[in-house]
Design goal:
The complex is a heterodimer of chains A (about 250) and B (about 325). Chain A is α/β, with parallel strands linked by helices and about 250 residues long. Chain A has a single domain, classed as P-loop containing nucleotide triphosphate hydrolases (Rossmann fold), CATH 3.40.50. Chain A is built from nine helices and ten strands. Chain A is globular and about 55 Å long. Chain B has about 325 residues and is an all-alpha fold. Chain B has a domain at about 35-250. The radius of gyration of chain B is 20 Å and the shape is globular. Chain B starts with a helix and ends with a helix. Classes of the chains: A alpha/beta (about 250), B mainly alpha (about 325). The interface of A and B includes residues 73, 106, 129 and 165 of A.
Amino acid sequence: MSESALTTRGLNKSFGSLVVAADIELTLPPGVRYALIGPNGAGKTTLINLITGMLQPDAGRISLGEEDITALPPEQRVRRGLVRTYQINSLFAHLTALESVTLVVCERRRVAQIWWRQLTAYRDEIDEAYDILRALTLGPVCHRLTRELAYGQQRLLEIALALATRPKVLLLDEPAAGVPREESRELFAAIAGLSQDITVLFIEHDMDLVFRFASRVIVMVGGRVLLEGTPHEIAADPRVRAVYLGKTRQEAVP
Amino acid sequence: MSTQTTAGPVRHLQAQFRWGWSEIAFWLATLLPLVLTPSYLVLASQIAITALFALSLDLILGFSGIVSLGHAAYFGIGAYTAGLLSTRGWGDPFLGLAAGALTAGLFGYVTSFVVARFRHLALIMITLGIGLVVQEAANSAGWLTGGFDGLQGIHTLPIFGKFRFDLYGYTAYCYSLAGLFLVFLVARRLIHSPFGLALRGIRENTARMPAIGAPVHAHIQTVYTIAAVIAGIAGAMLAQTTETVSLEALGFQRSADVLVMLILGGTGRLYGGLIGAAVYMVARDQFSGLNPQYWYFWIGLLLIAVVMLLPNGLLGGLSLLARRARTAP
């Protein structure tokens, strides 16, 4: 077995009789860009919740690198480099963008429990936070309160928070949800520009973006992985056309 | 290059943390009772102590979103510790303060394991329960605490062996005010620290914190313990300056009162508890003079009015006025 950044084995989860994850087996090598696609209710967000520990699986195993992390609480997984963003903005409304990212850097560097020194003594942390914001074009607005930022900027801040944890594996739940098309391209350009050491898995409905930015695609239907392959293999697969593309066409009809 | 480009962000934060004129004016004003109302120094001393207690609650409620209805437990433990030491002949004020801080902090640390695991209504009930348990424990341990009659025979020794606690409350006020100010400095530093930032993160979005790798429970335990220490110091000061401790020191009424004061003054602003305590105690003094039986009626009315009209408390209203005045031509 070759090197894997993230591995799941026999992952299962049901809510009562509703199966939301069935025998999920994933092996994500380091540095690969994965798109996770599938119709609504396929269990994509649930899978992210399971992998990051927001939900406990009924059965199965999750490993980050060599380490079994199935029993670890979410914050411990983050500290080991398994990080997510949220489909619906989950930010700190009354912190500025800079404060938010600085907080994450402080947590990563284990100085967030220090209450006897002033924050401004932590220049390196603040600098690093500022650099992350600038790289995502948020430098000029870094002193604005999060709630005063434009929606697209808030989406970028979501990613900035995740990057500030120095992730090894980054799970992006519809990073461009609600963002106008032109802006979502910029946003994905920022994602594509991430270090090649980071394994990225993103949920996305826009097939153009999927084909442009993913090197591999995972298709989920009804809590199961239908198949995994390169974008071309996925596009050519008749089952995907039937299940996924067929479904979207239905959805398009009111 | 990096320092040059990022001097801006750091300087911006530094400017936010700097002492403002209104802050300096506030602390200068706390000296006024010494010259303007020397006959009210006993009240002023109790206001300073209550303000310290309210500051302690603000750290957990205003800065971390932990609602407590049992905060008097820690205040009372500090008060009984200092009082008991004094009745056993250990009447040195600083020793009493340290011991009160220690016992309250220990109890705060132990209870923090439970407190950190709950939010919202469950948390209110748990803190209420802690308060009731401590109150009844003190009540039933009459051999130690004096039970319903309170602790008798407290005698606080002069500060530095020199400044006795006089009848007019001159020493008491200086002592309480100095204590309030010093602890305030610590609290101010705390909220401007990395930890203070983490607390604001917890208040803003607790659910998001684990996703950035933050140990929420550990943070809450730390702030809860620190708040308990401060409450214990306030309690010890009350015991020392009034030379009495009764069950009222750790009763539900005190927990509720301090919550009301903080909300009146404005939560999450450090000064809210101080202003709230002053307004509340002066109002109680005045209203209970007018109408000793029904003064809570007026407090109730005041509370309703403030919460309806000034959701961020008196201080929130003041800063709104200040901003309007600045933008007005």
